[in-house]
């Protein structure tokens, strides 16, 4: 049984410290790649996947983001205002849950970009998500072919898509690509206040309800000024 999320959350509250000096006076989600802000690249993909409402959380330079998305209708953007309190990636979702409802929703990092393969990856995620077996389904990028990433990976993936977290001193072939489908049920008994979303990934993993889907296409991690140029080059080549 697949799902078709109509709601999404886009994380846009980070300080963007690694992106300085581009983020000295501009929030990271508004940094442009190929003439379009990162946030719009994410929202465009959600619109194409049939999402009607996207919750965008804000903290750093929030007024710029609020003004930027004010006229957006596909998807309609709802602001989750965190300017008075740092909540982290997990606490931010908990705050937004009343806006997201009780059905599984898309979850995107605003600094993730990818070039789709034959079929859109968000569509593939929706078709693959099985609420009977999964609480979280992560889009996983092969580390070897990703742009702007040089780490040791996040997970190994079994043939059925089940994920196994990387152990210390281990190198694994897949990195979380910053897009997922999450069931709100996983946040039952979630911590209060600030915490990392990886805590929920770990909880789902312990219950064998964390799965992955291999990205079809090319993933670009846009975390530093240098990565902006690399992502822009790859994106422009893909549409040439």
Would you write up a description of this structure?
This protein is an alpha/beta fold. It is 27% helix and 26% strand. The protein is built from 6 helices and 13 strands. The chain has helices at 38-48, 62-69, 88-100, 121-128, 198-206, 225-239, and strands spanning 7-11, 32-33, 36-37, 53-58, 76-81, 105-109, 112-116, 136-142, 155-157, 163-165, 174-182, 210-214, 217-221. The strands form 4 sheets. It has a 7-stranded mixed β-sheet. The chain has a two-stranded antiparallel ribbon with strand order 2-3. The longest helix has 15 residues, at 225-239.
In short:
The protein has a 7-stranded mixed beta sheet with strand order 5-4-1-6-11-8-12.
Radius of gyration in whole Å, from Cα?
Answer: 17 Å
Sequence stretches where pLDDT stays below 50 over 5 or more residues: none
Terminal CA distance: 37 Å
Order of helices and strands: EEEHEHEHEEHEEEEHEEH
Q: From the helix content, strand content and strand pairing, which structural class follows?
A: alpha/beta
Helix segment count? 6
Strand order of the largest sheet: 5-4-1-6-11-8-12
Main sheet summary: 7 strands, mixed
The count of DSSP E runs of length 2 or more, i.e. the number of strands, is: 13
- Strand proportion, as a percent range, falls in 25-35%
> What's the helical proportion of residues?
25-40%
The backbone outline, from C-alpha atoms, is globular
For the residues shown, what is the average pLDDT?
Answer: 91
């Amino acid at each position: 049984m697949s799902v078709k999320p109509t709601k999404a959350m886009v994380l846009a509250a980070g300080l963007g410290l690694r992106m300085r000096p581009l983020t000295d006076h501009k929030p990271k989600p508004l940094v442009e790649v190929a003439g379009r802000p990162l946030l719009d690249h994410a929202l465009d993909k959600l619109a194409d996947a049939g999402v009607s409402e996207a919750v965008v959380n804000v903290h750093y330079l929030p007024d710029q983001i609020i003004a930027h998305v004010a006229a957006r209708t596909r998807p309609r953007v709802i602001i989750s205002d965190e300017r008075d309190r740092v909540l982290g990636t997990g606490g931010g979702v908990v705050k937004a849950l009343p806006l997201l409802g009780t059905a599984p929703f898309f979850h995107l990092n605003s600094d993730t970009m990818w070039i789709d393969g034959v079929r859109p990856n968000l569509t593939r995620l929706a078709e693959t998500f099985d609420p009977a077996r999964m609480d979280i389904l992560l889009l996983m990028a092969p580390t070897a072919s990703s742009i702007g990433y040089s780490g040791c990976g996040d997970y190994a993936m079994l043939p059925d898509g089940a994920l196994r977290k990387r152990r210390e001193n281990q190198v694994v072939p897949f990195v979380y690509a910053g897009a997922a489908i999450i069931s709100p049920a996983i946040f039952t008994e979630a911590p209060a206040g600030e915490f990392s979303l990886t805590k929920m990934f770990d909880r789902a993993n312990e219950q064998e309800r964390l799965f992955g889907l291999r990205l079809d296409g090319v993933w670009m991690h846009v975390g530093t000024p240098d990565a902006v140029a690399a992502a822009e080059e790859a994106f422009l080549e893909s549409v040439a």
